[in-house]
């Protein structure tokens, strides 16, 4: 088991594919309440950074599905999964919610970083989630936050939202300058 918090520099990156930043991954996976042996779905895997962190944390007895609709991002997820030598990851090229139908097991937590068609994704994700499991959504837009909360509340989830504002120190000749990371919202709900 490896705790989340891999430095961003350790991932293979591509400029046009956005990555969930290290500090946000740590918080989001903590809100997902992952544990060793857990089953986890990453919707909109992008670079694969969340998939990689989750895979290392749940370990060999756990399982991670990475869903991504863009071919280039799928390839990047695959490169990072290979770089970290992960054997418990299944990559699904396709668009959620339909791509979720390729998963024939119930899981312990679902992370949604790709928020196109969010409402439909949450409703389908709910059917794949065990009771007591969590759906965690990263959002930049206020509208995404209100939509996520509204759908989760309609499904009777116990919901929370946090706004995360992080600044990371950059070493300069005069000392450390704190450079802001984009603020982000993490919405999460627990299935009752
Ligand atoms: C903000 S990025 C995710 C970043 C990712 N967590 C990472 O760390 O690299 C959003 C990704 O979700 C994908 N996406 C958006 N909506 C999707 C959907 N409905 N189904 C599958 N992928 C989706 C986009 O193609 C994009 O790669």
TrEMBL record:
GO biological process: anaerobic cobalamin biosynthetic process; methylation
Catalytic activity entry: Co-precorrin-6B + S-adenosyl-L-methionine = Co-precorrin-7 + S-adenosyl-L-homocysteine + CO2
Cited InterPro entries: CbiT, Cbl_synth_MTase_CbiT, Cobalamin_biosynth_MTase, Methyltranfer_dom, SAM-dependent_MTases_sf
Binding residue positions for S-adenosyl-L-methionine: 20, 44-48, 68, 96
Keyword S-adenosyl-L-methionine: yes
Enzyme Commission no: 2.1.1.196
Keyword annotations: Cobalamin biosynthesis, Methyltransferase, S-adenosyl-L-methionine, Transferase
Coiled coil region boundaries: none
Pathway(s): Cofactor biosynthesis; adenosylcobalamin biosynthesis; cob(II)yrinate a,c-diamide from sirohydrochlorin (anaerobic route): step 8/10
Residue span, Methyltransferase domain: 36-158
GO molecular function terms attached to this record: protein methyltransferase activity
PANTHER family xrefs: COBALT-PRECORRIN-6B C(15)-METHYLTRANSFERASE (DECARBOXYLATING), COBALT-PRECORRIN-7 C(5)-METHYLTRANSFERASE
Similarity section: Belongs to the methyltransferase superfamily. Archaeal-type CbiT family.
Name the record gives this protein: Probable cobalt-precorrin-6B C(15)-methyltransferase (decarboxylating)
Protein source organism: Sulfurisphaera javensis
């Amino acid at each position: 088991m490896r705790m989340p918090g891999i430095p961003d520099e350790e991932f293979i990156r591509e400029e046009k594919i956005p990555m969930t930043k290290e500090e946000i991954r740590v918080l989001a996976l903590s809100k997902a309440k992952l544990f060793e042996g857990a089953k986890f779905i990453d919707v909109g895997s992008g670079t694969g950074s969340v998939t990689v962190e989750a895979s290392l944390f749940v370990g060999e007895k756990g399982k991670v599905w990475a869903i991504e609709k863009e071919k280039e991002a799928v390839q990047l997820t695959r490169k990072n999964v290979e770089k970290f030598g992960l054997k418990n990851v299944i990559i699904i090229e396709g668009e959620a919610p339909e791509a979720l139908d390729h998963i024939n097991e119930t899981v312990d937590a679902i992370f949604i970083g790709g928020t196109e068609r969010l409402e439909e994704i949450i409703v389908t994700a709910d059917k794949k989630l065990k009771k007591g499991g969590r759906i965690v959504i990263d959002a930049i837009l206020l509208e995404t936050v209100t939509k996520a909360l509204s759908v989760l509340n309609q499904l009777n989830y116990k919901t929370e939202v946090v706004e995360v504002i992080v600044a990371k120190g950059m070493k300069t000749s005069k000392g450390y300058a704190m450079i802001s990371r984009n603020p982000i919202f993490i919405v999460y709900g627990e299935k009752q």
